[in-house]
Each structure stands twice: as C-alpha cells, then as structure tokens.
C-alpha cells in the first residue's frame, strides 16, 4: 500500500503544477515580431524587429534589446530597423519593457539569419570565337527558373540587353571582344542575385592560307609544277583550289601537280567542320613559262702574268639555282677540280697561272634536279705575258773585313712603282723593302737576291741572280816587351805591329778590354811604341794591343797578351846574433844584416834613421847606452842595384826577474813528504839555490842546481821554518831576484777522516751522498763498506760519494779515509755510518665510480692510497698525461665535478713526505664522452588486443650502472618536463624508475597507444642522459574519440598522385593535429612542404616516395587516433588493400592497380600471401568472401607491368554477443518508460527485481570488450587470444594467451598452427544459501580441474595433461544490508604446466610458488548495487612464450583447447 499511496501523491502534485500559467501572476511579457515575417533574410534587405508588451496595463514603456551587435538597435525604442542586412546581423534577438520600477518578462528569442544573395553564373560558348561565328551567353541563378536576366558589357552601367530568357545570342557580325557579366532579377525575395564573375570574349583571327611552289624560281618549258596549300593551326582541312578566279572542283587535296603548259594565277583556301570553319584565302601565285637563257663568261685578269690567279665567272641571269660546267680548247675537254683549279658555284679559279693555262675557255649552266641546260657562253682566250727581270749590284768594291758596311742595289727593268724584297741565302729579309740596302759584315754575309712587287700588273718581277758577299779575315796584332821582367824604377818599351800595312793605327790595353792605356807623365806613345818610365808596382799586369782603320771602323784581332812582371827588390833584415833571449843591463849585443839573393852587397846601417859609419854585415853594440831602433839596406852595381830597407829592430832592455817558490803540502803531517818548487818565468835556462831561515843557510847544496824542485821526506818538527829560493842564468852571469819567503808548518799528529750522510732513512731508487772531510786540501778519498780493511769500494778525487738509485742490498755500514802524495800518505779511518734502505711505498690510484665510460657532466673522484708507507702523514701530487696538475694536496682524493671532455687523459699520483716520494701509481685512463642519449625501442610497435608491449632503453653499450626512467608523451605544457624541441611534455609511467633496461606495458583500461620516451641516470647525485627520441606505439583499430581516414582508402599509393588524410572527431576532445613518422622522424601538422590543410583534412597534392610513413591524429589532451601505414611506390604496380583492420567474417577485396591502367585495364595478375602464390586472376581483383584470422598476413601482386610492394592485412576476431543481452534491452525500455513519466511502473519493477534477487544466484555472464588488432609487423606479433564463452550449464570458456611456439613442435605447427590457445571450462555450482558455515581453507581443500592441451604431433602422450588448481577464496561476510553492494570474491586458478615455458619476465607479476605454476586472476562481473552482482567468474591465463621467427597461421579454438573445471563453494553475497 505504501508504494501505491506514494504514486498517487506524485501524480496529484504533477496535475496541480500543470494547471498554472506564467501570466497568472500578472507580470507583463514582451513579444518580439520580425518583418518581413521570415527568419531568413538576404544580404542588403531591410528588416524591422518590433517589440510589443502584452499585459501590465501600461503603454509608455521603454525598451531594452539583447542583440548580437551593439550598434544595431537603439535602446528605449520599440522598433529595431536594419536598413541593409549583413552577415554580422545574424543572431538571436530579444527585448523587454521597462516602466519606472517595473520590468516586463524578456521576449522569446527570435533568431535572425542573414544569407548571402544567390550568385549568377555566366557561361560563354564558343570562346574564343572566330569572325562570323555566333556566340551564346548563358546566365543561371541556382536551379530556379523564376529569374529574369540583365546583361552587361565593359561597365556596370552599360546594359547590353534585358531578357526573361537566361541566354543571350550575339550574331557573328556584331561580336565584340570584351568582358561580359549578368545578374538575375525577380519579384519574389530575394529580388536580385549577385552579379556573376565577368567572362571575356576573345575574337581570334581566321587562319591564313598560303601557296608554296615547287620548283621555286623561273619555270622552263617541259617542266612539271607542284603547288601546296599551307594553313597553320589545324589539320582537318578540306582544300579548295582556284585558277584565274575559277575553282578547280576536282582538286581538293593539300597539294596539286600539273604541267607547265597550264599557266595562270593560282590560289587556295580551307574549310572544316569545327570552328574555325574556314580560312582566309591565300594570295595569288602566277605560273608562267621562261625561255632558256645563255651563259655569260668573264675572265679577270687577261692577259695574265705567270703566278697570278685568274678568275673565270659564268652566269645565267640572276637565278642562283644553276650549276656550271667549264670547257677549254675543245667541247669535250671539261675543266675539273685540281690543285690549281678550284670550282666554287659559278666561279672557276686558276691559281699560279702557267704557260699551260693559255687557251680558249667557255662555260654552260645546268639545273641537274630538273635536267635543264643553258645555251653555251661565247669563248674567251687567256694570254700569258713574261715578268720583268731583277739584278743586284754592290758599292764600294774592295777587300771586305768583318765590320765593314756595303750598299746593295736592286735594278728592275720597266715600271718604277716597285716594292723590293731582299733575300739572303733564300731567307727573306722582312725589314728591307727599299731599292738599296746597307748591310754590316760579317753577320750579314751571304748570297743576296732581290725581287720586286707592285700593286699594278704585273704584280711581281722575276728573282735576280744571287750576288755573293765575300769577307776576308781580320789580321792579328803582334806585341813585344823589353825588358821583362823589370825591377822597380826601370824603363820598359812595348812595340805593336799588324803585317806590313802602314794604314793601321794602334790602341794599348792593360788588364781589361775597356782599360785603354793613354799618354801620361810616365807613359809615352809614339806610332807603334809605348814607353813606361820609372816602373812601379802599379805597372805590373797584362798588356795587349790592337790595330784599327778608323775611316772604315775596322779593328784587327787583339795581340796575344804579354804580362809585365815587376820583380821585388831583395829584402834586407836585421837580427840579434848574440845573446839570445831577454837582454839585461851590462850585456854586449851583436847585430847582423841579411839580404836574400846575390852576394856582392855593400851594407849601410841606421839607428833611429841616422846612418852609422859601419859598412860591414855585422854591427856590435853595448847596453844600455846603445839601445835603440836599428835598420840596414844593401847596394850593388848589377840589376837590381839596391835592396829594400829592412824593418827597424828595437833593442829592449829587461829588468832582472824574480823567483817564485811553492810548497806542497803545507801544513804537513809528521812522516809526510814535502815538495818545494822554484821557477823564474818560463825560461828553462836557470839554475836554482835554496835558503832556510837565513841568507847564509843554503839548503841541501852549496851552489845552484838546474832542477827547480826539492823534496823533504818524512817531514818532522825540525823541518818547520821559512824557505825562499834564487835563480841564476846558465849561459850569462846573471842572477834573478830572490823569491818571497814561505813558512812550512808541520802538524803534531796524523789526521782522521770524518764521514757523514745526507739521508740515512732511504727508499729504494733514492740517491744517497756520503761526505768524507779532512782538515787540509789535496786529498784522494777511499770508500769502504762493511769492513774498513777490505779493498775500497771506490776512490774519488772529491770528498763526496753518491749512491744512485739504491736498492735494499746497498744498505749497511760505510767508512772512508783520505790519502795524498807519492808515496801515498793516508789519514786515519773515519767512524762508520749506517745506511738503512727500505722498499719505496707504492701509490695506488683508483677511479670512483669505476665505470669504463664516463660522460660529460658526471662527478669523478680519484683516490690515491700509499701502500707500504708506514705512517699516514703523506701529501699528494697529481699528474695528467705526465704533466703536474696539483703540486701539493693534503687530501687523498681528487674530485672533478662536473667532468668535461677536456678532462680526458691518463692520470697518475704519487705521495710526498718531506723530500721523499712514493712510487708513481699506475696510470688510470679517464675517457670522458659527450652526454649520452638514450635510445628507445618498442616491441611490438603495432598493438594487438591484450598483448603486452616491451619498452627497451639502451645507453652506450660500454657504460654500466644505469637506472632507467620511463615516460609517456603528452602535449607540451610550459613548466612540465619536456623534450628539448618542446614537441612533447613527459608524464612518468607507474613505477617509472627501474634497474632493468626494459619495461613491460600490460594493456588495461584505455589503449596505451602514443609516444614513449626513456632516459637513464646513475651516480649520487644522479646524472641523467638526454631523453631518447620519442618512439610510438600504434594501433590500427578505430578509436572512440577520433579516427583517421585516408582517401583513396588504401595503404599503397602511386607517386605524383593526390592523397587526403582526415581527422574525424567523435568525442569532445579538441585541438587535433595530424602527425607523421617518416624517414625516422616525427613531423607535426600538415606543412606546406608536403601538403596543405583544409578544415580537418590534410591533402598531399603530389606524393613522393618520401611521403611514405605512419600517420595518426593526436589531440591537445594526449589522445591518439588509429594509425595508418602509407606506402608510396614509384613503380608501376600497387596493391589496394584496406587501411584499417578487417573483422572476421567480412568480405576482403584486394585490387592490383597499374599506373597506366587505361592502356591495359585487365592483365593477368598473380596474388601472393607471405611470399606464396595463392591465386591467379584476370580481373586484377581477388576477393575473400568470409575472411578469417588465418587470412592475416603480407599480400602482394605481380603482373607483366611489374610487382607491387607488400602490405599487411590485419584480421580482428568478431565480438561474441553475450547471452542476457535482452536484459540490456529491457533496461532500455524501462528507461524509456521513465522518460514518459510512468513513475509508478518504475517503482513496481524495482520492487519485483528486489524480491527476485533474494532467492537466486543469477548466472549472468559479463563479456569484456575485445580490442581490435592493428596493422603490424608479424615479427613483432606475439599472438592473439580468442574468447568463446557460452552460457548454459554454468560453463565458461576463457582464453589462455601464450606466445610460445615450442621449437619441438615446428613440424606439426606448419599444418595445425601454433598451440598457444588454451580454453578453460569453468563449472559454477549453486550453493545452499541457508547454511552459514565457515569457508573452507583453500590450502586444505583445493579444487582441481583438468586442463587438456592439444598438440599437433602424434607423439603427444600423457605428459601433456595439465592440471589447474582453482583456489576459491571468499572474503569474510559483511553486514547483511551491505552484502548486495559489496565486492565479490576473487578466485585464483593455479595452472600447473608440466612442460616448462621460457617465460619472458613481466613487471608487476607476483612470484609463483613453484617453477612451473601460472596463476590466473579470476574476476567476477559487478553491476550496480541495486541490480546485485552475478556469480559468473572468468579467468584469463596469459602464457608468454617465445615468438617464432616464421609467421604461422592461427588455428581455430577447437584445435588447441584446454578445459578447466572450476567448482566454487558458495554463492557470492550469501
């Protein structure tokens, strides 16, 4: 009763509300009317909108308007008048009235639509037009016949005609060129149309006929004439011929031929069917007969001289069509072409005329092509005259020498205007053209000839006889010189002669050709003699002479040269005979004058240039009184009469020298030997005396000794004291000054050596220096190791000994001592010094992180550890490529952050502790590369329903340690992570950071098609690579939001054709753009370089092979349409196949199309699938009436025209209609009843459904939507799943998808297909809902179902049975009121496969409890709470196995079914 009462109340309320009207409250309402009463207004019309207020009892209203434009309707007025409507006036109009504080209600909106006027269309036929033709102009306004028309020409105000008819005809006589247009007019609206576009009528001139004549020129008797009528522009003419204005009816061809006897005036014209229908007639051509002409012969020159050229010219009127024949002496002697006879056209040319060319000549013309000859010319005689003769004469005439100049003259009889040509030995002298020429000898000697030329005839003479020019050789001069050689001061005579001829004069030369000896004080020239007085050194040299005849500028040959030699005078010199060496005061010196050569000298001595009385060779002087500069000279009676003066010899007196004493060693130790050395300069002629303490205490000897060295052996304390020495000359009684005194000190004891080391704690490889010191100098040092009484390790002259690059074995105790003298005097041994040597510590350099490849921008730390270094107080040096980078660093680490390519290199380090260094570390190579870019690949790239998709991200193969980030591309948004080119922003995928380089997409919910990007990072802080280029996952299935269509609707297209791609929107998404993936690049939009955009359609107006690619549409919100793979082929054959997947059961038609289809539309065509011939067709088409999944694959076609590319055809499994769909129809009917207002029925239905749901478990099946497959590469295909579920006996068949094609099944797979489809039969038992017992433990009470797999091989045995354990887990029961809306139980099915499958690792997959177990999630279908959940469970088991390389045909479900019986324990919700 309660629902019934509720329904009655609702109906009553509805009735009460419907009884009220809006005007019952007394509020006035505005009513808006439009005049004219039409919502459609044409452009330019006047429109009035009137606002009337109904009700309210007021008349003085003010009005307000709502309108599309602010400047249309004046406020407060009740009318809005639009005088000339425009498109901007379109829109909704409404109004209201205002009166004081009261407003009426707004009027209902009135929509005003302004439509453009219809436009007139003008056509003109024919156009262009020829004179005399009729033109028809047709004007139309849409298809309406109610229009009248007005016609215009040239201007809008120039009305040609006004007519009801839509055509205007202009006769041929009145056709004028110019633009025409028209306009329609009528009584009804709109009253006029828009004016048509103008059309210009063009009047073309008629083609012009012309007549050509063959042969051309004059016509002679007996010939035949051909006339041809030529009309340009067209070919289908009929020709009309006329003679003397009379038509020749029998002549209609383009060409006519007739004998010459039919003379007259001829013309032609043409006629044809199409326009132009006629041509202009040609001009007249006159045909007449001409008499045979006579040839005329002219000869120039005539008479002719030998060698001239004669030209004979023959002419027959002025016509150039004649050829000519030439005759000489007889009619049968035809002159032909030869070396000297040249025939060119009408001319015969005779070159180099000779006597044989004299005679009688005549000629005749002929036209060979027409067999016509002229009358022979009158004969002409050619006469040959002799040439004048030339002769050569010479002046003057005498013996000719080289250098002479003579004059030659050329004499030619007759004529005077000659130009002369001279020749020497047959060679032309081009510069000589005068009658007389002057030539110089000897260069121009030879045989001379001449010849004359002139402008008149004769143009040249005969050549003269040759005149020889003979040259006599020049004589040679002879030179004599006396005396020679000569001494300075003497006189020399030189005489020159040239034969016995007295006409010669002479020139004298010295040393050089251009140095002429002339008259001077000492040089006298008399005819043929040159005299040189007081010969000096400057007169030495080479002399020669030359004779000359000055009047003829002739010179003789130079004489042989004669050298005048000036012998030097003997040289005098002064020397000291005794004593030798330095001269000391008190000594006597003997001088001697020596002169070379000759012996009969008389000597003269000079001191300071004053001559002495002494005349002998020797001169004795005493020192120091007669010291000075001495020189001498000699004289004699013969040649030479004197010698040169000697150089001055200075006599210098030297002071007595001082002795020098040295004592070594000093001080001296007891027992040592002391050496005393005395010297007086470097002279060895001294003997020495030694003194100690007193002048009278001479040491070791009483007199002088030649030895300047004295020894004191075994020095003792008594040897101490002052010592000096003195020298005495052995040869002269002269003593030196005594030396300075030296004190000799003798020590009281033997010295001890002191040993020290610069470094006692030493590393191997170091240098150690030992220093041995003794208190006095001059020692040799002896070095000992381990024991001092052993043989010395080494001996050094210095006090130090360095051990270089020591090793551990060099350690130990060292001693030293020193020694000097002969015999050696030793010091005492030093004390020992201990040298400790340890191995040098090793530096070890490590690179952190220890990656083989480092990239620019990362952080690198190098650590230097000292191994075997003892304490830790080390400092560090760092080297790069052996060059010091850091000199001093107290830290063990060297950090480079960020690192760049310039940091690449070989790094080493070493430890520094004081002056000690560790070993340098081994080099560590740091290679820094540019920031890497990740490379993303997607497999498969074309999505199949239910398939998982693998993303693979790769960085430089030599680098490690990466973690990978995964992104999906979304439309670019500023501020979001984006690609560098701003083409996309990036949205992270779930769990987008992985340590593996692969990521698996498991499609669920929205299709995961779109772009994907990855990058990698490593280190702390994280260093990221560049983002990868986006890669795309495409689907060929049509999408709900937008679809991409192609016109023509095929995947293959020819080049040079048009192609359109359209984004057809279906949902609310906006901002769609066309994308393409071509040449490995993504391109956005429809750019002008490959297409143009119109609305949502992109048209590629001219396709290229580069236009091939994948195309799709992409929205501003990131949604993707289906993708289409387009192939543009530049060959002659393509295969037309659908761009979208076809549904199983549909008809599939493939068409083989040829580029030149019109020439051979039907060719024998072969169709191939996956490379195998499947059909031959003669129609070019292949049809599969009912396509199935097995028809999926690559198709191509071949014919005689060529072969098409391959195209992939995708087949989608048709969706299965689920039982219980009638319930959905019932729900739709119920919803319709709700719209109709039958609320009561709805409530009753709900009550009934509620009561029915309490006592039963509905066995309703939920059919998940089946996504469609896409065009894809079969190598990327991972198999498709089939779902066949049946309602009845509570059985459900579900899909187990597997991508494994076991290699052992390869043989059988070719016939039966891969065994990857598994069906599971699930049996649901209704449970007693009255019992409320506790749910069974799944582990203790499992449900087993047999999963039967079918194999293609006969060898399959019991091992192929698979058991599925179905574990039904029920959730704890909730409160009863909430049970209807609560979630149903999730059931897991464990399928135990006894044959192992190599499963590809999937992300987000729970680890199975055993190696061979596969868990399948069994999901129940849930409906809204009011309708209660059904109890049907479906399970999908996806077995991912390896993909076979070879594409295999899928098998029907029955071939590979696996049945699994699932037995649930309870009804959900109870």
Radius of gyration, rounded?
69 Å
Task: Sum up the overall morphology in one term.
Answer: flat
How would you name the oligomeric state of the polypeptide chains in this document? single chain
Number of helices: 5
Class from secondary-structure proportions: mainly beta
Count of extended strands: 115
Taken as a percent bin, the fraction of beta residues is: 35-45%
Descriptive report:
This protein is mostly beta strands and 1470 residues long. The strands form 30 sheets. Strands 63, 65, 66, 68, 69 and 70 form a six-stranded mixed beta sheet that branches. Strands 2, 4, 6, 7 and 8 form a five-stranded mixed beta sheet that branches. Strands 25, 26, 29, 30 and 31 form a five-stranded antiparallel beta sheet that branches. The chain is flat and about 175 Å long.
Brief overview, please?
This protein has 1470 residues and is mainly β. Helices cover 4% and strands 41% of the residues.
Properties at a glance:
single chain, 1470 residues, mainly beta, six-stranded mixed beta sheet, 115 strands, 41% strand, disordered N terminus
Summarize the helices and strands and which ones pair or pack.
Blueprint: H1 2-18, E1 29-35, E2 40-42, E3 47-54, E4 62-66, E5 79-82, E6 91-99, E7 102-103, E8 110-115, E9 120-125, E10 135-141, E11 148-153, E12 159-163, E13 167-170, E14 178-185, E15 199-201, E16 210-214, E17 224-230, E18 238-243, E19 246-247, E20 255-259, E21 264-271, E22 285-287, E23 296-300, E24 310-315, E25 323-328, E26 330-334, E27 341-344, E28 347-350, E29 359-367, E30 372-373, E31 380-382, E32 390-395, E33 405-412, E34 419-424, E35 427-429, E36 436-440, E37 447-453, E38 467-468, E39 478-482, E40 492-497, E41 505-510, E42 512-516, E43 523-526, E44 529-532, E45 541-549, E46 554-555, E47 562-564, E48 572-578, E49 588-595, E50 602-607, E51 610-611, E52 618-622, E53 629-635, E54 649-650, E55 660-664, E56 674-679, E57 686-692, E58 694-698, E59 709-712, E60 721-729, E61 742-744, E62 754-757, E63 761-763, E64 768-773, E65 780-785, E66 794-796, E67 800-803, E68 812-820, E69 825-826, E70 833-838, E71 842-848, E72 854-855, E73 860-867, E74 875-880, E75 883-889, E76 893-896, E77 905-913, E78 916-917, E79 924-926, ...
Parallel strand pairs: 2-8, 63-70, 72-80, 90-97, 99-107, 108-115
Antiparallel strand pairs: 1-3, 3-5, 4-6, 6-7, 6-8, 9-10, 10-13, 11-12, 11-14, 14-15, 16-17, 17-20, 18-19, 18-21, 21-22, 23-24, 24-28, 25-26, 25-29, 27-28, 29-30, 29-31, 32-33, 33-36, 34-35, 34-37, 37-38, 39-40, 40-44, 41-42, 41-45, 43-44, 45-46, 45-47, 48-49, 49-52, 50-51, 50-53, 53-54, 55-56, ...
